[in-house]
Amino acid sequence: MSETETVPATGRVGVMLPRDLPVQDVLPYARRAEELGFDQIWVVEDLGFRGGLAQAGPVLASTTHITVGIGILPAGARNVCFTAMELATLAQLYPGRLIAGIGHGMPDWMRQAGSWPASPLTLLKEYTTALRLLMSGEPGPKDGRYVRCEGVVLTEIPDIVPPVILGVRGPKSQAAAGEVADGLLLAEPAGPAYIASSLRHMDAPADVRRLEIVAYDNAAVDDDEDAAVNRVREGLSAIGEPDWAPHIAPLPFATELHAHRAACADAQEFARTMPAAWIRELSIVGTPGQARAAINARHAAGATSVVLAPAGPDALAALGSLARALDPGR
Q1: Per-domain boundaries in the chain
Q2: Best CA proximity match to 155, nearest among 199, 90, 204, 89
Q3: Fewest Cβ atoms nearer than 10 Å: which of 32, 152, 300, 307?
Q4: pLDDT tops 50 at residue 319
Q5: 155-166 pLDDT, tens per residue?
Q6: Rounded to an integer, what is the distance from CA 67 to the centroid of its chain?
Q7: 12-223+285-323: which CATH architecture?
Q8: Which strand (E) or helix (H) includes residue 291?
């Protein structure tokens, strides 16, 4: 990043717009998140659900100041020139309110869609480099292995170019975020140990505030701590699977977690019987004060934004309880 780029403030708290939220609740949810004082709302693009760009536009239009993050747009799904045009248009219309998350996507989904390259990391580096140049009004870079946009120039560019951050896991992909992007999106669970480990992989500068480090976490806030813990169990059922190994490796109880997962008949039993102490480390749960402390711990570990993914059957109703974890002095 150049020395003239703005250093973002730290300590932001966002909320995720669930991928399966009933369509009639999408815009009321966004407006309510803004009313409650959340700094950001993140829309999700998962195969078979809703498109990230298609959600971001109406959410921006129906709110006034909340930042909208897109997490994530798979690089293999869209031509980079047209992605740059879409993002630049949103950034022109809603200056300073957009963050673009890019990733290589979930391998199984991308293979199913016929968009998984032989070298996902090469694609991601080429794509991110080109996207940032195009949105800045610079000519597209020399054609690469996957991305071909040499000499393309956007004439409509925003005054405030949105940050492009990479939603990836694993050391090599996270190192790429430090090389070619404006930051990193860490999908849940993203506890303090995982955040710190990821920043080491990025070889991040001492002043990590120059980067956007966004941490997603399953969240439930309740005056009854046990009720909050139990509400997030289902959302943690997949963490014992191989794809989640980078999240588990930095934990002090990693060996015990793997052994517990191996002893369980299925993911549901694993989540149902996981010790509460592990759940507190792997999510943001408990009373408002406990949840606020968990958020602060993630900020202290290097996250510039902590994004709460509401747990439970009624996400719209959960917004009010999650907002109780916001710092009352904000």
Answers
A1: 12-223+285-323
A2: 89
A3: 300
A4: yes
A5: 999 999 999 999
A6: 13
A7: Alpha-Beta Barrel (3.20)
A8: helix 288-301
